[in-house]
């Protein structure tokens, strides 16, 4: 490029608030697809590389200075400047920016966000910062205005933060606060509220450390009590000093740790209760406050974790029977909060934390706590247990299996969890839902370990089904002794739905363990009692349980279902539902549709044979008629297995072979036939000969040959035939030693078995009786002719009147004579 009008220097503001020259190039404006908007591009004049690619944002404040300078902020703490060689080039780009933002190019700034001089900002790059007014009562209004005007600009925010930090301004402001409060100077207190709130939004850690120090934090909270938008000031300090009490459940000997806990609580209180809810624009300005609290919590967890005496005393008092209930509740609440703090740790630190708790005996302690009567204590213990299960379920499983060797089933930790789930007094079963989720995690094979020496899945599932499954299923078995649920209130239905959800999960993931349990305890029959519940969600849970079992297509399950007629309650529920189009109706139909589509033969036969009368009048879906058709096809195949095998061959090959290949094979077939056969050769060759030759003869080639002949002669032959009332003629093949082919019409004709047309040596293939047919005589080469019935009805008619005759010889080895 040689156009000097667009020649520019690119500047960026560095971390030290100094302008860095990024290079010299030529600027242009064009639409960039990747950025989805018009952008400024600067390419280096030396090598054409891209120095700058900046989308013109409609909301960004661009400022034009000295006729050749454009300055803007690309992002927080990232400022850019273009210095043009010529005024004309600056005007062109400025007009483009104003056009995108819909502004008049005569303005010097496109967005009125701050009242500051960008000329000073660019010219005086080494400016030390803002000059704050003296910290006096009569200047508080000026200071409040300065803080408010500085917040929108990253540069001015930075300068203001430096000025407040360097001049120790916060302590001076807090001294003024005490004076204003003593004088009851409401106007001054309102200005101080705005100033302190603005300092929070400066988002600077160094300022937070001063504000949250022991000598300053209560005064900072005091300043934030006097919100000018409220008619009366808040009483935050009164709450923190009188209402909120710090309890040392275990004495903390480290003063630094105690101070850190106090500080974290108060800062968290400021964030949650004192500061007004930040706007969308202010939220990012409080990120440093969030980080301050986060790192404080990490530090507290680390210091407590390193204090072995503290943790030892904690667990000793938790498990000591002499500990008072109130004291134990405080200890459990502390441990719960301790675990909650641990969620802020990095993964490796969290590993060390839970390993420390495990070594201290947290699981035996939880077992003791969960056995207590206090509902609040048990609730806190459940929360702690959930942290452990989510972190390391294998650790919990290992502990449970080890304790089973020493304790009875009733006091096992996992059985305590199940009992609490069953006995949850909450009408909505909130606690039971939480506990069911924990049990599901413990029973999930996906998070179980497998090593060379042992398989956790096998060991734990064997333990669970031996020691715990009877506890889980007890409410289900107790409530399903009759044809209808014994108790059908809402809370019981909710509990049974949770148990069924867990059992359904087991069916999907536990294979033979749950299969043995279901079949031995007749669980499915009990579950299907719940289809009679008045609560639709419970009936659907029972159907879902059976649907998962059917979906496995396991013949053990299928035989169990058929042996106990377990589709009966499903059909009964379907009939009782009537014509209502609801979820129950759809779920039942979907189950039968699955059996039909997947062609589960045993269940299809069982359903049609036992329940067809109840289902045959359902015509708004074709599912049940389709099941009946499947059943009839299945019976037909059982009665004539050769029919099924040949249809399979034809279905697989009928249209897949090349026509030329067929012609070659047909010619070979004819040649081989005439060369090999001699006059007077036996009609039925020995079985071993048949088997050896059968390997060389593909049934499909013979079928295609006969079909070809049939296509050319059917009209001619069948047009002349007298069928004596029959719709489908069948043909008798007579054989002699002649080279002629003769189709005679003796009193009884043999038709080839339609199950294997022309199949050489087919065992059991025999001639069947049929009415006389028209004689057809063909001279010359051998011709294979066979009836290929496409209609199943013909086969049934043929079977009714058939009489066995001598077995036909293979058509390939046959010679036909006139």
UniProtKB/TrEMBL annotation:
Residues 721-753 have a biased composition (Polar residues). Residues 671-694, 706-818 are annotated as: Disordered. Regulatory subunit of serine/threonine-protein phosphatase 4. One of its GO terms (cellular component) is protein phosphatase 4 complex. Pfam families: EVH1_PP4R3, PP4R3. Coiled coil: none annotated. The lineage of its organism: Eukaryota, Metazoa, Chordata, Craniata, Vertebrata. Residues 143-633 form the Serine/threonine-protein phosphatase 4 regulatory subunit 3-like central domain. Gene3D superfamilies: Pleckstrin-homology domain (PH domain)/Phosphotyrosine-binding domain (PTB). GO terms for biological process: DNA damage response. One of its GO terms (molecular function) is protein phosphatase activator activity. InterPro entries: ARM-type_fold, EVH1_PP4R3, P4R3-like_central_dom, PH-like_dom_sf, PP4R3-like. Residues 5-101 form the PP4R3 EVH1-like domain. Residues 671-681, 788-803 have a biased composition (Acidic residues). This is Serine/threonine-protein phosphatase 4 regulatory subunit 3. Residues 706-718 have a biased composition (Basic and acidic residues). Belongs to the SMEK family.
